[in-house]
Amino acid sequence: MNPTLMAMVAAALGFVSVAGFGFALVAGADNQKLAQRAKLLAKENRDAERARARAGGQDASGRRKAMLQTLKDADRKQRKATLSLGAKMQQAGISAAPRAFWIVTVVVGVVVAFAAMVLKAPPLIAIGLGFGAGLGLPRWVLNFLGKRRLKKFTEEFPNAIDVIVRGVKSGLPVHDCLKMISRESPAPLGPEFLRLVENVGMGMTLEQALEKSYERMPTSELRFFTIVLAIQQKAGGNLAEALGNLSNVLRSRKMMREKVKALSSEATASAMIIAALPPGVMILITVMTPSYMKVMFEDPRGNMMLAGGAIWMCIGGFVMRRMINFKM
């Protein structure tokens, strides 16, 4: 095989492995952020509980403590259900078992490691490339599919609420409005509402069915919708007006997200260019002057330099990702 072609393929495999490992680190950052928010919320609840305990009696304090503990347990259970591997596969629209994901992970790692050994890479480098690719690439694909599906669901959700508002104003029950959405809405909104209708038909309450839907589609919009329906069922009121206001709020949130995306587009483009520049320069030098980069792949000191550069690239990409990632 041509040495130049071998070096290019090895560089491409290295870049893919490093990128996959970096995306795996980024995927774990969201879970860490959720844990930090949960700790902060628990601390605020404890402080508020102590202040109310000093002002009120011990009996009321005990009831509040039990209520807060129940809420925290429910929130912990819900967060665990939405962050598990099975839940993420459902969010991505994959109906296979989690075992299939681990099989794909092992296969990708073995294939990348074998390809690196065929290209005469050192054993440690080949194992590292296989580990990085197997750990990162399947998770990146899973997160990409899940985010794309959640985005489509969020974009169509205000239209579904408008259908319910018009149906309620015309005298239709909420259940018939949900059936209409399940028939006429595009995927993934239509199939999710179809599951919702089926769960209600099997004996679940509407609130329980919405909680199941939230495990598959953990979006703030669906949570707001669940809260509005729960309050309306318990306290009564004008459901059409409440859902109409919710639809306006969701459309305003969408406009704000688009505005933030437009304002941060320059930083996002700069981060992508900076992240792609070192691998791009290495590939160009390999094509133009193969002997110049050959030392980096054959000499142990060159391998250490490449490994150090890959680690710093991962750290830099992680930091830039945190700087330009705006959660709403």
Order of helices and strands: HHHHHHHHHHHHH
Percent of residues in β-strands: under 5%
> How many helical elements?
13
Mean pLDDT: 79
Give the N-terminus to C-terminus distance in angstroms.
51 Å
User: Describe the biggest sheet?
Assistant: none
* Number of DSSP-assigned strands: 0
Structural class: mainly alpha
Radius of gyration: 25 Å
Could you say which overall geometry the principal axes of the C-alpha atoms support?
elongated
Helicity level: over 70%
pLDDT < 50 stretches = none
Key structural traits:
single chain, 328 residues, mainly alpha, 13 helices, 88% helix, 0% strand, elongated
Q: How are the SSEs ordered, and which strands pair?
A:
Blueprint: H1 3-55, H2 58-83, H3 85-91, H4 98-118, H5 123-169, H6 174-184, H7 189-201, H8 206-216, H9 220-235, H10 239-263, H11 265-288, H12 290-298, H13 300-324
Helix pairs in contact: 1-2, 1-5, 1-11, 1-13, 3-5, 4-5, 5-6, 5-10, 6-7, 7-8, 8-9, 9-10, 11-12, 11-13, 12-13
Question: Any overview of this molecule?
Answer:
The chain has helices spanning 3-55, 58-83, 85-91, 98-118, 123-169, 174-184, 189-201, 206-216, 220-235, 239-263, 265-288, 290-298, 300-324. It is mainly α and 328 residues long.
Question: What does this entry show, briefly?
Answer:
This protein is mainly alpha-helical and 328 residues long. 88% of the residues lie in helices and 0% in strands.
